[in-house]
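Translate structure to sequence.
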């Protein structure tokens, strides 16, 4: 296996929706990890759709590094906005892989 470990799964990148879906469906013991995976998938889908629309309608392409920073910011903002027991360890889990 190659690539970094992401929550116990070694990935070389999600190049297909099936790979992302398989990663998301991998069972986790922690409910906060399940929630974080869902947030990551939602943010990734939003970024992909947004990038597609910018390219299609305005012929503007965003560099991958910028998209990565935007994705990170989306997830951090969403985690910081949650204030319940289930989300108590989300930021720690997210920052472990930062």
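Result:
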């Amino acid at each position: 296996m190659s690539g970094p470990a992401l929550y116990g799964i070694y990935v070389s990148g999600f190049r297909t929706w099936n790979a992302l879906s398989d990663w998301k469906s991998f069972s986790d013991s922690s409910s906060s990890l399940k929630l974080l995976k869902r947030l990551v998938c939602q943010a990734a889908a939003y970024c992909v759709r947004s990038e597609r629309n910018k390219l299609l309608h305005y012929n503007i392409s965003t560099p991958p590094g910028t998209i990565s920073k935007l994705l990170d910011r989306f997830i951090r903002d969403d985690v910081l906005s949650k204030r319940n027991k289930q989300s108590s360890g989300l930021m720690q889990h997210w920052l472990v892989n930062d």
